[in-house]
Amino acid sequence: MRTDLESRLRNRLTDDGYLFPDYGEYCFANVADTVQSVLGVGGERSLPPDVFPDPSASYDRVLLVLVDGFGLAHWKRHRSHPVVERLEERARVTPLTSLYPSETAAALTTFHTARLPVSHGVLGWDVYDPAADATCEAFTTEVTAGDETVDRDLEDVFEGDPIYPALERAGIDCRHVVPFPETYTGATCHTYGPEPTLEGFVPVLREAFAAADDPAYLYAYLPQIDSVAHEHGSTSDEYGEVVDRVFQTIEEALSALDSDEAGDTLVLLTADHGHVDTRAERNVDLERFDTVMESLQRHETGDPVRYAGSPRNLHLYLRPGTVDRVRTLLERELDAQIFTREAALECELFGPEPKSEPFSRRLGDLVVVHRDSLVWYGSDRTKLEFVGMHGGLHPDEMLVPFAAAELEQLV
């Protein structure tokens, strides 16, 4: 583990306890272009070469394992686990920052498109688009507020294209091992599960690995740790049990792969974000603030525009003339960073410009980032009851591991 780099990132990127993304260098947002660069098909925004054990080495295939929600703080807490310990001994483990917001909807859209949030426009789990007068969930596309007649496919939610059709045209065989029945255009889907179990992961990854033709990019997605953190928190016994199962499964899966390909395969293991454990009694129900509720814009139905972003990345869409009043109130009442649109753009919170038109529509008048608790609406009580959560700028959710090693070093 490169603790010296972690210290430098913290010192350079932290302001009043909030840790900002390192978009230009050591950032999860740069992983997609890094993989493309390794496979010889470009990549405009790659990680620094020192994230690799041997920056001059070349590989026929890349296997990237994404452990959703397993941030650097959690990695260090579980570094005595035999598999994590072996990764630290045999791989090069580099700390990265997540992007903003530090949540799966934005981060994985960046991962699959190589676009920053300022470009792809997915600014949280709940995506409010004024052009449609509707809020939908980023990955399910289910409309949760506003115009219920809006019908979207997954790839309608974000601006731009997935990276996989271009990789396919360049001769890269892309395969996704996921607990879902389908994946992005240009990649072959190999399904295990059902979610959130690990059932079938080992044979399905082996099947995908054997079927791939070089050069190849294999992506394996494991959401189980993130799921248990939301429900029980990252210090619970339940969390520890799932961490153990996930990493034992990863070890079994790597050991089951064809040894003939081991010397030509680069294995990457990373996470999109970490977690902050919250206490329900400290979480904030915005519906108790009359000034806020009265200031919210309205759907055509007359209902307030509430659900946008997430409880650690809350976007507020406000009526003209109310922004300063609401900001002053929230700065007084909450231990939080309150960004205006202008401030968010100036500090490149969602990434450096150019910004897309969907991003410009969807960015709230205010973005509320609590230091360590949740801010949401009591009418959507489930989200206020999560124990583990992410999306904000706490170091525990913003720092993630990036491990790199040749497959033959790990098996």
UniProtKB/TrEMBL annotation:
Q: Which InterPro entries match?
A: Alkaline_phosphatase_core_sf, Phosphodiest/P_Trfase
Q: Name one GO molecular function term.
A: hydrolase activity
- Determine the domain of life of the protein's source: Archaea
Annotated Pfam families: Phosphodiest
User: Can you name this protein?
Assistant: Nucleotide pyrophosphatase
Q: The organism's lineage?
A: Archaea, Methanobacteriati, Methanobacteriota, Stenosarchaea group, Halobacteria
